[in-house]
Design goal:
739 residues, mainly alpha, two-stranded antiparallel ribbon, two-stranded antiparallel sheet
Length: 739
């Protein structure tokens, strides 16, 4: 947290491996990339799978290239894990992994009534067991028609499995899938489990694609990237903690406790480890899984309806970006230059060059919404809406561009140090290298890497370092190849992790703290996930940025100067963000000559904007009131629905006038997906929603405008009760003039 570590962390290693692996897959994946992300049709996906069987069989060049890249990557990943203790056999016709969806598998062939019974708490144990047996029988019989029976034989006798043995094997596989692997031997290490992972052999491409469409990930891209992410995690665990990472972690924890003579930090360490290895993501039961998926869908829907103006809040990144550039001795001039270049819409060629060379290559699969407490990428409707909102809002472009700029900045200074000597660099830059275990040996390897030109500057990249292993002078020496790979991973991890601090993004620590050790599907778990939605940014600020700034191990003058730079930058960014938000709502800028404005701007800038907003209005930045702030947007949305229905009903019973029609329009306006984008919201409001509100309750807009102006001491440049604006925004109002 305070930047005092002296080696790469487990999470950093995972990030470094993933960054390099995604770089190697980038060119093949890029052919399927569109404006809203990765898009592949069923025909294209089937072509890719067929190409895995027989190269050139489809005539689809893009599919062939992706199949070639996948085969190359998967072979290298298998060899690496085998060198760490696994024994994963090579399958010449191995196509793609099988990532099964438990909820689909456990309800195979069941009617809607039967599925409801399976989830009902009133269903007896015997009835539930009978339904499971029926689903298992349906699934096993379906698989039997697609299994490659030639793969199943007894090695000692050479005899093929009988029908009875195949049914027994598939029944065991069904139990493993539907229990998320809980029936596996807990004493077996990760290396042993990886060795036995690919047991279901499907006979051809059509069988694989058909079965995975029924029972697995429908989106081939999601399956591939999930596998790459899982491989990075598994490899990092094996490299850091040995063939049985759980036992290795326990041993390390016990040693730490003995050395410290204290239990302090044990609970949190366990939380972080469980978050990295995925233990916090396994639902508690089949009913819990349904509950968890339902709540996830609700949160994703809220993301799609509330974060359309997210880009206007991300201006704060400029302050943390510049402060962390200073902290790491990277210089402000180049820092600004790389940020501007990376955000340039016309700089597409340099962006792609950076991605394929291991600079910010993770951003291809990064989930920007996780900066604010929720994942949005997936194949279901709510997920698609949420993902579209994040992209169309500009938040994806901004976050990816800023992270790419920061990583390029580090790569530039690496090359500069190679050209002029490491001693020529700022001592804070040298300290950053030490934090990731980059010492004399690693530096000698980095010095040999060939820099590439990106945005007019010479950059050393992780891919350039890894390419050194193919140099004929290495002669295939395993130790030298391993040292080169390790150096590339450390550099990639350094670039990724430092960028995630400069452009604040929560890691395993923050996610684990927000989940508090709960698993999906319990009331406590979903309560924690709901209440912390949109709050992970604030937590990451306090755990990732502030400890660096206020605990820096340097002269007090440097620490004070950095703190002042950061604080002033955040306040100014917060003020700018506030004014842009008001302009996007049709309001003139607020008077900046009041203390109230600057207090609110300071709170906004520090990730506490929900409190700054309350200084000016009854609504926070996501459109909710106090209930939304304390209980999270899910509670806030339910509270708004209660006000619309129950509260209005009571008002009507008492004979009081209600605004239910206008409020219903407002509720829809605040909760429909995708429409609340910062650059379309005002136009849609005047063309559609304001018109509907006024028609349902004449005079409503005038009363609403007067209330907002009186409460917030502002004026409008485009009044809600006017079809077209009568004036341009009055920018002088920011200085208290012309109000």
């Amino acid at each position: 947290m305070k930047g005092r570590q002296k080696d790469i962390t487990l999470e950093g290693r995972k990030n470094g491996i993933l960054q390099i692996d995604m770089a190697e897959m980038y060119d093949a994946l890029d052919k399927y990339w569109g404006a809203l992300g990765f898009k592949i049709t069923h025909e294209q996906a089937l072509n890719v799978v067929k190409e895995m069987d027989t190269r050139g069989s489809t005539g689809d060049q893009a599919a062939k290239e992706l199949a070639d890249a996948w085969a190359k990557w998967s072979s290298a990943a298998r060899i690496r894990k085998n060198s760490l203790g696994a024994d994963i056999g090579k399958l010449e016709d191995w196509r793609f992994p099988q990532i099964w969806e438990s909820s689909k598998t456990k309800t195979t062939g069941l009617t809607k009534t039967e599925r409801s019974k399976l989830l009902s708490p009133l269903t007896s144990y015997s009835e539930r067991k009978a339904l499971y047996e029926k689903a298992k029988s349906n699934w096993v019989n379906d698989l039997m028609g697609h299994i490659d029976r030639s793969r199943y034989f007894h090695e000692d006798t050479g005899k093929y499995f009988t029908d009875t043995e195949m049914l027994e094997f598939l029944s065991h596989a069904f139990k493993s899938i539907t229990t998320h692997g809980l029936n596996r031997d807990p004493l077996k290490g990760l290396a042993d489990r990886l060795s036995a992972e690919r047991k279901i052999h499907l006979k051809n491409a059509e069988s694989w694609y058909g079965i995975m469409t029924k029972y697995g990930e429908r989106d081939l891209f999601s399956l591939m990237t999930s596998t790459i992410q899982k491989n990075a995690k598994d490899t990092a665990m094996l490299e850091t903690l040995g063939p049985n990472p759980h036992q290795g972690f326990k041993a390390a924890l016990a040693a730490a406790k003995q050395l410290d003579g204290s239990d302090k930090g044990v609970y949190r360490a366990q939380l972080y480890f469980d978050e990295i290895n995925g233990a916090h993501n396994v639902p508690v039961s089949e009913r819990g899984e349904l509950f968890a998926n339902t709540m996830l869908g609700i949160r994703q829907w809220i993301v799609s309806s509330k974060l359309g103006s997210l880009l206007l809040s991300q201006i704060n990144d400029l302050s943390t970006y510049s402060a962390m550039a200073t902290y790491n001795g990277l210089g402000m001039g180049k820092a600004i230059k790389f940020a501007v270049d990376s955000l340039n819409f016309t700089n597409e060629a340099d962006k792609k060059s950076a991605l394929r060379l291991g600079i910010a290559s993770q951003t291809v699969i990064n989930d920007v919404a996780q900066r604010y407490g929720e994942t949005v990428k997936g194949v279901k409707l709510a997920s698609r809406f949420a993902n579209a909102t994040i992209r169309l809002s500009g938040a994806q472009w901004w976050t990816d561009g800023m992270k790419r700029g920061y990583q390029l900045l580090i790569g530039f200074h690496l090359n500069d140090a190679v050209q002029h000597g490491l001693d020529s660099q700022d001592k804070h830059f040298q300290a950053m290298l030490k934090r990731y275990g980059i010492g004399v040996g690693e530096w000698e390897i980095i010095r040999k890497a060939t820099a590439v030109e990106i945005s007019g500057d010479q950059i050393i990249t992780p891919a350039a370092i890894k390419m050194l292993a193919t140099d004929p002078s290495i002669g295939g020496d395993p130790k030298r190849i391993s040292a080169i790979r390790e150096t590339a991973i450390k550099v990639a991890a350094m670039m990724h992790d430092e960028a995630d601090i400069a452009i604040i993004s929560p890691g395993a620590r923050e996610t684990a703290l927000l989940k508090a050790g709960t698993k999906p599907g319990t009331v406590a778990s979903e309560f924690m996930r709901n209440i912390t939605l949109f709050k992970s940014f604030t937590l990451a600020m306090s755990t990732r940025v502030l400890p660096r700034i206020f605990s820096v191990d340097q002269m007090s003058g440097f620490r004070a100067g950095l703190a002042a730079q950061f604080t002033l930058g955040m306040i100014i960014a917060g003020a700018f963000s506030y004014q842009l938000k008001d302009l996007s709502k049709g309001r003139n800028p607020r008077n900046m000559e009041t203390s109230e404005f600057w207090v609110a701007a300071a709170l906004q800038s520090g990730g506490l904007g929900i409190f700054g907003d309350f200084l000016f209005a009854d609504y926070n930045r996501f459109g909710g009131g106090l209930a939304s702030t304390i209980g999270g947007p899910v509670v806030g949305t339910l509270d708004d629905f209660k006000k619309l229905t129950i509260d209005n009903a009571f008002e009507a019973i008492k004979g009081k006038e209600t605004n239910i029609a206008a409020e219903a329009v407002s509720f829809l306006r605040n909760n429909l997906p995708v429409i609340n984008l910062s650059y379309t919201k005002l136009g849609l409001d005047h063309l559609l929603f304001f018109t509907a509100q006024e028609a349902s309750n004449p005079g409503y807009l005038r009363r609403m405008r007067k209330r907002v102006e009186e409460q917030n001491k502002i004026s409008h440049w485009w009044r809600p009760d006017e079809g077209l604006p009568r004036e341009f925004p009055n920018l002088e109002s920011a200085l208290g003039e012309g109000e």
